[in-house]
Input
Amino acid sequence: EIVLTQSPATLSLSPGERATLSCRASQSVSSYLAWYQQKPGQAPRLLIYDASNRATGIPARFSGSGSGTDFTLTISSLEPEDFAVYYCQQRSNWPPAYTFGQGTKLEIK
Amino acid sequence: QVQLVQSGAEVKKPGASVKVSCKASGYTFTSYGISWVRQAPGQGLEWMGWISAYNGNTNYAQKLQGRVTMTTDTSTSTAYMELRSLRSDDTAVYYCAREGGIAAAGDYWGQGTLVTVSS
Output
């Protein structure tokens, strides 16, 4: 089973700063990686799929990069509503099976 | 617009079963799959399994094999997840999500269903 390790566990930043979140896979997942944002009491929200594609309605300040085993979610300039928990997720080829990372909490400094 | 509406909260005793429904609208139900994901209190996301709404094929997480069954009713565009032999550590919010076409467990998500297992 592929394990996803996210770092850091907690990231403390101020609005307007740049956030860089990391996700490392225990073996190659090609570009089959997604990122989600989750706020308290809400369902996860898909931000990025296939490593670098923004989902519908996601602001351009969110970007994803990477392939193979190392991936990054970047938020170029933090807005107050961006403080949340972020999860990466990988997909096996077929049949579909998914694994989530343990999450990174982005908190206001 | 795409919507997934789940059934309401449940309280079950250990050893019982629970069946959560997820009614889809705003898209062609049989063109996508449904993922089920759960989240224990204060914990991360755990993928439970997937079902094709086209042909009913399933793939379950290994740790839940034998206890979970996912089904769909295409006549009502509804997906179901049944979990049996409930334990206290099954207490969680259970989500359904539309899956397919992209490498993501879900691009649209239900609102979640809290299942509490307690004696």
Remarks:
- The longest strand of chain B covers residues 18-25.
- The radius of gyration of chain B is 13 Å.
